[in-house]
């Protein structure tokens, strides 16, 4: 099971070719790809055209979607933030911190293209698709 972050999906929908979008394309039909509610919102909010929005919504709804945050994940995310800050690393985006924490707590591998996840990989054992 691999959770795909919005940083990859947005590039994918925009036709951007990079290692991450190529890996996502390779994983389709071979691995269980999952997303989260925050990821669904981040991806879909970027569409300006109604037709593109509807197509993307249908594609995104084909993936199992987790509810990413609850009280336990929120508290754990705050603890992770404080731990990383004490190490001199600041995760700029709270949503990324929550997504990373969700993956850590549920032992789910993450495919991303966002530097905010790097300190979580380095210090918190976030499993990253490489």
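^ Assign residues to that structure.
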């Amino acid at each position: 099971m691999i959770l795909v972050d919005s940083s990859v999906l947005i590039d994918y929908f925009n036709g951007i070719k990079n290692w991450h979008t190529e890996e996502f394309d390779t994983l389709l039909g071979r691995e269980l790809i999952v997303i989260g509610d925050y990821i669904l919102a981040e991806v879909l909010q970027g569409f300006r055209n109604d037709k593109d929005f509807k197509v993307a919504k249908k594609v995104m709804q084909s993936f199992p979607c987790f509810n990413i945050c609850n009280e336990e994940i929120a508290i754990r995310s705050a603890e992770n933030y404080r731990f990383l800050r004490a190490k001199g690393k600041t995760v700029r985006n709270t949503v990324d911190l929550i997504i990373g924490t969700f993956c850590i707590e549920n032992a789910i591998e993450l495919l991303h293209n966002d530097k905010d996840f790097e300190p979580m990989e380095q210090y918190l054992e976030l499993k990253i698709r490489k």
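The radius of gyration is 15 Å.
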